[in-house]
Amino acid sequence: MSMDPAALADRLGRWSAGRGPLYLLLAARLRRLIDEGELAPGTALPPDRTLAAALTVARGTVVAAYEELRREGRIRRRQGSGTRVAGPVRPGPRESTGAPVFLHLLEPRDDVVLLACAAPDAPPPALPAAYERALARLREVTGDIGYHPLGHVRLRRAVAEHYARRGVPTEPDQVLVTNGGQQALALLARAFVGPGGTALVEAPTYPGALEAFREQAAAVRTLPVGLDGFGRAVRDRGRRPDLAYVAATHHNPTGAVLPPLVRRRLAAAAEAAGVPLVDDEVLAHLAFPGRDTPPPLAAYGRTVISVGSLSKSVWGGLRVGWIRAPRPVVDRLGRLRAVHDLGGNVAAQLAAAELLPRVESLCADGAADRRARHDHLRTELARRLPDWQAPPVPGGQTLWVRLPHGDGDSFAQTALRHGVAVLPGSGLDASGGSREFVRIHFLADHATLTTAAERLARAWRAYEGGEPDRDTPPSRALAV
């Protein structure tokens, strides 16, 4: 398949109608066409000069846009073979859907062990019980049409009490309920980081956050994990970011936990500079036994914005998340949300309100099992792949594994051909680094993790032996 420059220009539409650098606006529009399946995997894109002429822009604009998409893994650029949308469609019934290319990570082939997307693989018994209590409450509802753009008051109150128990006094009107943590990040990106704006993130970081910022055609700047150098970055008036994003507790993907002193410094620097600081707390409750974690980042600063969700602590199918923020921020986000979404599922919110007072104990109940799975996977990797570096983590769900040589992108493709999906590090690093890393979760049962380690070892032998690089959808993109 080859895309005619004029036809692509038509599909791009009014791509330049926005604020910010042209290359970011062009990359954002191309990204959407790729993710929505309008540019199919394997499609040959026009050469730089040809597309630039069709769009009447400088060649450098196209080159820079293509480079953004190449770093994200959405396109491939090879000398002699041009530029193509990453990964031709695999044969089989799943490919007839025209779904975005990242969905092969969420819905893999039946024979693939999925270690790229981390989430509990079954709802706990407490969830059906919570729904039963929620449905009983629904039977009593009168005088309520069911639209709650800011979230059902019962859940907003439960979230406020959840933070108060953790040392962060919170009122219900400081809480906005969302359809999961990803919607929360998308709303924050839309509110604070428009086209041409700048988001400051860790490198590496959660790829869903990068997707949210890039969807707004924003530039992304990076600092090391823990945001070392944050004070200088937010004081630089010429390059001050519009928003900063951090995962202070059980960082995705490294598992790091920021100490209290660093939290205090980050919160103080952000407040002094007037930069919104977003703390992703989705993994905060997943500590291993005997591992204490500091108070939330919001305990150290009045302006810190917290994002939470039950997708990791309970189940990914419970699409309930929230934003805790100062009241004016919640009001602003509520107006933005109402434009696209008049409210979430009330039954799910009532069930979440039943669960939230118990979420710490639910996570504690499963902590020993999570640590056992973590230890088992590390043991299997050490036995079969002794040259790999897989440091232990104090909690969370993933290992950040350094390969002894090569790069995670090409190895992830080899691994997928051997029946195991892992996430290459480049998709989590906006700086273009982390190419020697892969992210692997340890939530599967012991037998599955053993199988995965066996397949990874076979894949590594094939990779080292120079197995031919057959085109396969890369294991990048919106992983969780």
Report on this structure:
There is one protein chain. The chain is an alpha/beta fold and 480 residues long. The chain has three domains: 5-85, Winged helix-like DNA-binding domain superfamily/Winged helix DNA-binding domain (Arc Repressor Mutant, subunit A, Orthogonal Bundle); 93-122 and 365-464, Aspartate Aminotransferase, domain 1 (Alpha-Beta Complex), CATH 3.90.1150; 126-360, 3-Layer(aba) Sandwich (Aspartate Aminotransferase, domain 2). It contains 16 helices and 15 strands. The protein has helices at 5-12, 22-35, 48-55, 59-72, 103-106, 126-139, 153-165, 181-192, 207-215, 230-235, 260-273, 327-340, 346-355, 359-384, 408-417, 446-464, and strands spanning 44-45, 75-78, 82-85, 113-114, 175-178, 198-203, 219-224, 243-246, 277-280, 305-309, 321-324, 398-402, 420-421, 423-424, 437-441. Strand 2 (75-78) and strand 3 (82-85) form a beta hairpin. 49% of the residues are buried.
- Structural class, from helix and strand content? alpha/beta
Determine the mean pLDDT: 89
CATH superfamily of the largest domain: Type I PLP-dependent aspartate aminotransferase-like (Major domain)
The Cα radius of gyration reads 22 Å
Percent of residues in β-strands: 5-15%
Strand order of the largest sheet: 5-11-10-9-8-6-7
CATH class categorisation of the largest domain:
Alpha Beta
Specify the number of helices. Answer: 16
What general outline do the C-alpha atoms trace? globular
**CATH architecture tag of the largest domain:** 3-Layer(aba) Sandwich
Instruction: Give the proportion of residues in helices.
Output: 40-55%
* Poorly predicted residue ranges: 88-104, 469-478
Multimeric organization:
single chain
Largest sheet: 7 strands, mixed
Number of domains: 3
Distance between the termini: 31 Å
